[in-house]
């Protein structure tokens, strides 16, 4: 089900289609295992049995479960970022672009709860390297918000000035809202956040909500 997810999502090119396919299966198996049991409980056996590979094949790619998990987090984040790149077409009015982007983000997270959980929930338990990847995701969200702020300002909207800390706080609020619902195992609760989230962003920018 998740096997095709990782095409092109790793940092370095892989040698040969067979090896690339095995690596994608192992990353997908890691996501599925983490979603089922939590990161701390996942073993090499959990991954190899799901991916249908031998332990030797696993150790050809990864030093241990933590390095496999980091690769899975990176792949999940890359997949989400790639999906959201086209979520808000530039020809739309700024407020509509904002609504479209947040709606697409919530739809994607709700449709892929295992991926979302790996990025936003289980990464909290995986130590500093995973936290660094999570912080990159946070920084990317803040950059997206800055882009929306600048677009609104360019369109003549009376936005208030915002600082990097303002945008970091706003991105943190959005990520926290999402993370709490994923942690509770209720991805269906993500989509109802759309209207409140749009209102939060506009209010933070000094604009009246819809």
What would you note in describing this structure?
The protein has 210 residues and is mainly alpha-helical. It has nine helices and no strands. The chain is elongated, with a radius of gyration of 19 Å.
Task: Record the SSE blueprint.
Elements: H1 17-37, H2 44-51, H3 55-61, H4 65-84, H5 94-111, H6 113-120, H7 127-154, H8 164-183, H9 194-204
Question: Main attributes?
Answer:
210 residues, mainly alpha
Quick structural gist:
The chain is mainly alpha-helical and 210 residues long. 67% of the residues lie in helices and 0% in strands.
Structural class: mainly alpha
Number of strands: 0
H/E topology pattern: HHHHHHHHH
Continuous helix count: 9
Rough outline: elongated
Q: In terms of per-residue confidence, which ranges show pLDDT below 50 for 5 or more consecutive residues?
A: 1-14
Report helical residue fraction: 55-70%
Q: What Rg do the Cα atoms give?
A: 19 Å
Proportion of strand residues: under 5%
Distance between the termini: 38 Å
Describe the sheet with the most strands: none
Mean pLDDT: 87
């Amino acid at each position: 089900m998740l096997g095709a997810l990782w095409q092109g999502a790793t940092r370095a090119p892989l040698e040969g289609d067979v090896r690339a396919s095995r690596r994608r299966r192992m990353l997908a198996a890691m996501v599925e295992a983490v979603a089922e049991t939590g990161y701390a409980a996942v073993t090499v056996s959990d991954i190899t049995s799901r991916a249908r590979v031998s332990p030797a094949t696993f150790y050809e790619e990864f030093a241990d479960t933590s390095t496999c998990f980091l690769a899975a987090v990176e792949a999940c984040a890359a997949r989400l970022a790639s999906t959201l790149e086209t979520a808000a077409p530039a020809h739309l009015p700024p407020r509509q672009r904002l609504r479209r982007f947040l709606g697409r983000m919530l739809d994607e997270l709700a449709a892929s709860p295992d991926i979302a959980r790996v990025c936003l929930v289980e990464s909290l338990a995986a130590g500093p390297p995973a936290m660094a990847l999570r912080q990159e995701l946070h920084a990317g969200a803040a950059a997206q918000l800055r882009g929306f702020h600048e677009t609104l300002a360019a369109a003549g909207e009376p936005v208030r000035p915002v600082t990097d800390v303002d945008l970091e706080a706003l991105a943190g609020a959005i990520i926290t809202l999402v993370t709490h619902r994923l942690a509770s195992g209720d991805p269906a609760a993500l989509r109802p956040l759309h209207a409140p989230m749009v209102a939060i962003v506009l209010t933070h920018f000094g604009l009246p909500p819809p």
